[in-house]
Structures are given as structure tokens and as C-alpha cells.
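re: ur msg from earlier - yeah i can do the magnesium ion complex, just paste it... oh wait u already did. ok heres what im feeding in:
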Amino acid sequence: MSKPTPTSSVTATPTAAPPARIDPANVADVIVRMRGGERRAISSVITELERLSTAAPALLQALQPHLGHALVVGFTGPPGAGKSTLVNAVIANLRAQGRTVGVIAVDPSSPISGGAILGDRIRMTAALDDDGVFVRSLASRGYLGGLSPAAVRIIDALDGAGFDIVLLETVGTGQNEIDVAEVADIRVVISAPGLGDDIQAMKSGLLEIADIMVVNKGDRPGAEQTMQQLLGALSIRATISEKVPVLKTSALNGDGIPKLVETLDAIGVRVAGEPAVDRRRRRARYLIARAASDLVAARIKQGGKGGLDPLADSVLSGTMTPDQAARRVLEG
Ligand SMILES: Nc1nc2c(ncn2[C@@H]2O[C@H](COP(=O)(O)OP(=O)(O)O)[C@@H](O)[C@H]2O)c(=O)[nH]1
Ligand SMILES: [Mg+2]
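and the outut:
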């Protein structure tokens, strides 16, 4: 690629979509092969959607009739809580039951070392040599439209490919990661002893989105204390504490994993009772909201015709309120 990829999510200045690597005339055929479980087809569809290539719109449209089957489970929490290891343990449990699993690991850590992705590959050993599992890691390189929307498009790819469950690992540090967790049908928030500030390290926003709380590294001293702190933090939020199960796991030795999967399934039964279109709509809503806020950010940056200065002067001279000026910017 001769052009540098954008590093910010502001893409409203029409950045040209990268050229497709699959022939747009073959889209229908690729979808058929993908749904037949052909890994190369799955991989190339994901790549097109990840890059938001010129084939992406046709692919997304062709996928639509096949969406809404997969249960999407988000795993989020601070770095080092054991998310990847836990996801690996859950994969092994699900595979033992014969269920197929797609995995997306979103890791915004330094793209320079590449260590995070390599680390995921090492931890997600359950996925090796198994056609029933497909793992895709995303680093924080520039994605057209941003990293999180790329992850959401890949959820659609894995759902469309027919996987029973899609596991989405995100680091719960920034608002974007917390937002992307909202596209999941079930949100698992993971903490662990020894992360420094323990519960304080869990952004309060994370506690609020949890359908299930997990204290991982249950084999380590301090796990019980972390459990108690968490139960305490949840009990102040009375409405939440009633329904959020708090489970202890050890992703390393497997303790608590069957119970975690049972709990996921119990919630999954409720989710499956919702119309599939509701799940697709949730993801579409997220993509629209993100694209809209990117557009707004770009408009502000450009300031409409002639930059923001003329509007700022109007505000200074009292001929316009900041609110009116803002509307003018949005009108373009
Ligand atoms: N003792 C113990 N260590 C764990 C457990 N789960 C993960 N780890 C370790 O914690 C470290 C971070 O794990 P990782 O899965 O990469 O965390 P992530 O950043 O949340 O994805 C690794 O060294 C793991 O081996 C656990 O249940 N018990
Ligand atoms: Mg990880």
C-alpha cells in the first residue's frame, strides 16, 4: 500500500476504500464456500471486511440473510486479568460439547512489538488444528472507520459463516472498548486479584455493563478478597447486584469454567428468545452511531466551508450563539 492508513477514526473525509482482493463478481460464491466451512473463504471475507475494501458493501449485503444465529459473548476487563486464557478455556469447553466457536481478540496494545497477538495465539491453544474454531486477532493499526467497527463487521462475518458462538475479547480501558462490548448479546466482565488497584482498576462503566462478573485467577491468594470487594461494589448498586452473577474461575486449572459456560447458556436461552433481527439491529445501531460521530468529528475538524473561524467570529460579535454555530457546522 503506498498510502498510509489513517490512524484516527476520523474517516469522513472520503478516504478511498482499499481495492478488493476478491473479485466482486465472486461474492455470492465466496459466501457459499464460507458457509460450507472453508477456512480460506472465511479468512478472505474477514480480511475484506476488516480493511473495508471495495468488496465490503457487497459482502455485508450478501451476509445479511445469514445473520442472527450466533450468540455473541463479550469478554472485557483490564489487561492481564486473564481474558485470553479464559476465552481459551471456554473454547475448550464449548468444543467438547461439539459447538463451533468464532473468536475476535481486539488488542489495542502496541502494534510495534506484535507481542499481544502472538500472546493470544499462544494462550488460545484450544483453537489449534480445529476446524470448529476460528480466531482472528485485531491490533490497533489504522482501520477505516476505527478498530471497534472493524470488530463488529467481523462479528457479522463469523455469524454469517454459521459459528454457534462468537467470543469477543476487548480490553476494558477506554470508552470505545466499553462501547463495543455493548454489541455483544452477553457481557462478561473479568477481574483478578493482584492487578494493583483491584476493583478501583475496574472502571465503573465496566461494572454497569456486566451481565456476568468473573473473578479469574481463583487459584491465586487474594481471589476471595477480590470477590468480596466486587460483591461490595455491586451491592451499592442495588438494581445491578440482584441479577449479576459473580463467579470465580481459574482459567489455568479449569476451575469454575463449566459453571461459567452454564451461566452463559442460561442467559443465552433468554437471548435466543429474542428475534434474531434485534441482535442484528444492535450491531447496525452501533455502526451507525460510530460512523455518525466520526462524521461529526470530521466536520468539526474541517469546520464546514472556510473553517471554524468565521463561525467563531459570529459568536464573538454576538450574531450567533455557539449552539446555532454548531448546527451550521452539522449542516455542512
Ligand atoms: N494463576 C493464574 N494465572 C492466570 C490465570 N489466567 C490467566 N493467567 C495468567 O495471567 C497472565 C495474563 O493472561 P492473559 O490471558 O494474557 O490476560 P489478558 O490480558 O486479560 O488477555 C498470563 O501470564 C496468564 O498465564 C489463572 O486463572 N490463574
Ligand atoms: Mg488478551
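cool cool. The two ends are 31 Å apart (CA to CA). ping me if u need the other ligands too
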